[in-house]
Amino acid sequence: MSKDIQSYLLGDKIFQPDYNIKKNNYFIKDLHAYESLCLESKLDPEEFWKKYAIGFLTWHKLFTKVLDESNPPFYKWFSDGELNVSVNCLDVNLTNGNANKVAIIFESDDGQIEKISYRELFVRVCKFANGISKLGYKTGDKCIIYMPMSIEVIIAMQACARLGIIISVVFGGFSSKSLQERITDIDASLIITADYQKRGGKIIPLKDAVDEALSIDTSNKIRNVIVYKRTDKDINWFSSRDIWMFDLESNQDEYIDPVFVNSEHPLFILYTSGSTGKPKGIQHSSAGYLLWAKMTMNWTFNANPTDVFWCTADVGWITGHSYIAYAPLSLGMTQVIFEGIPTYPNSGRFWEMIDSHKVTIFYTAPTAIRSLVKSSDLNKEVHPNNFDLHSLRIIGSVGEPISPETWLWYYTNVGKNKCSLVDTWWQTETGGHMITPIPGVTPLKPGSCSFPLPGIQASVVDELGDEVSPGKGGFLVIKKPWPGMIRNIWNDSERFKNSYFPDELKGYYLAGDGAQIDSDNYFWILGRIDDVLNVSGHRLGTMEIEAALVAHKLVSEAAVVGRPDATTGEAVVAFIVLKGKYPEKHEDLEIAKELRNWVSQEIGPIAKPKDIVFLENLPKTRSGKIVRRLLRLKASGQSITQDVSTVDNISSIEKISISF
Ligand code: PRX
């Protein structure tokens, strides 16, 4: 935790959108109400959370205890309560007037539209759950979901929740090797996948990757692979194991009793990168997680019954869990789910879809916005100014810092200067938004995620956990537990404690981000303080990529760092020492290509190094530690001006000049 955190150049312009925000019961109406709620949550946290847990969730057995702090940091919330997440997302909508309301508007890669009402979704979830149940799966079993964006992936997630089956959704862009590691780590007995996925006009195999993953570790416990048929293309079929999703659903009863689980029952495990070579299985609860996802959906997006919500994330990431698979359904919203990519068939796709589906709340990532800024500079026809977009009232950003320039472009061209722009800071581990503006309430500073939500005691501290003064950088921490927080790292409680609750930080949750608070109390996120990169909003561990690279037969040593990139935010740069001799000029391109493909195969295409630099040696301390800060400087094209007298092999990087 010794990385220097640079001061950030603070923007000073404040935007206060003047628009008539629609109100709902739980909406925070003004800054005064926001401050009172913050105070209320500090003065009597138990009462605060209890009020929301009762008001927001449907319980089978109401809890008597709000927070169990007997074994920190293994906090338990509402721990003697029982509920079912799918009841809270589906059954509740059958009796509150939403039964015939459209739950999901699905738009496929090639523009086909399919709509499903709450009642229809409920029936399909029940039929599918009946099918899974008849295959012998039950509460506590583990299921891997490896599917494209579709109505069917929501059905799969909700059906598992109905039965208390613990899921781990694996992003379709991960390789069979990554898939295998996750299957093994959670000891899964069921996989739900699709034959193929369609993205950007391409057809990408998914079932093949599953077959391959299962052949890597033949001691796996998988009994069935359920396959959603997305295309007419053939796939390999193992009749004793594989079953089509439509076959499993057909002739099943349209109702199945939900399994009521304890509040702390793991709803899902979602893998994310950390600072070691092995991804962490972030374990979330049922009640606390759903409560926080729903509360934040309400506060941050001011969710109203007439809204059409569109979150462009993939369900393979936490954003797609909280703000696609669970919270919008729990609030009876209509949402758009999109199979494709923002640039296909052209870069006007998002804007066209907002207009055609009359989207009112749009939630995307800075990386998508940056790429669309670039394409609309090149081709005026796809510029958002050519689209109406007047249905929008709130636009959101997530996953990485949004620069003030990108913020302004989004606000002006997409929000047409009238929408609230919510820059939401949160993480896989936090379950839901943590620091974010309240639309129409919080005055906005471009580039700042503004203030913590009520109930969230965020702060910026030094190495000893003491608060730093305004304008100074430090570690972003959350001082008190909250219901949506990570419960554990699957199979690794020690790592959970060490990574998130280090002894020296007074028991605070350490987010892994640097931040600073300005003199108006606005939070500014400065980026990761660990060896984690953020490439196109995807979290990648440098150690994970290094481990993949050194597993290649030609590689002796590898050091991976990030460098700034105008489109992807950060780009992966790999410094490689080959076994044997330094490559000749003509060889290096070939080897670099092979190594890129190798990483793609080992982890997934998202982890491919953008640049590969061959060195004779890596710069190291006398004790043999790679000096990554020098590599970071080199990778970002800066010269090395600091004292390097204690660094071995320094000549090997001094003599190379890198221009990207
Ligand atoms: O560094 C922060 C960045 O993304 C990290 C969390 O990544 P992940 O767990 O994959 O979740 C992404 C979606 C919630 C954080 O540690 N990050 C996320 N949101 C923001 C952000 N950085 C700056 N501003 C944000 N709004």
UniProtKB/TrEMBL annotation:
PROSITE patterns (UniProt xref): AMP_BINDING
Enzyme class: ligase
Entry EC no(s): 6.2.1.1
Keyword terms, alphabetized: Acetylation, ATP-binding, Ligase, Nucleotide-binding
Gene Ontology MF, one: ATP binding
Protein name: Acetate--CoA ligase
Organism expressing this protein natively: Candidatus Kinetoplastidibacterium desouzai TCC079E
Residues of the Acetyl-coenzyme A synthetase N-terminal domain: 34-89
Any one cellular-component term (Gene Ontology): cytosol
Classification via Pfam families: ACAS_N, AMP-binding, AMP-binding_C
UniProt superkingdom: Bacteria
GO biological process: acetyl-CoA biosynthetic process from acetate
Residue ranges constituting the AMP-dependent synthetase/ligase domain according to the UniProt record: 97-482
Sequence similarity: Belongs to the ATP-dependent AMP-binding enzyme family.
Domain AMP-binding enzyme C-terminal: 544-625
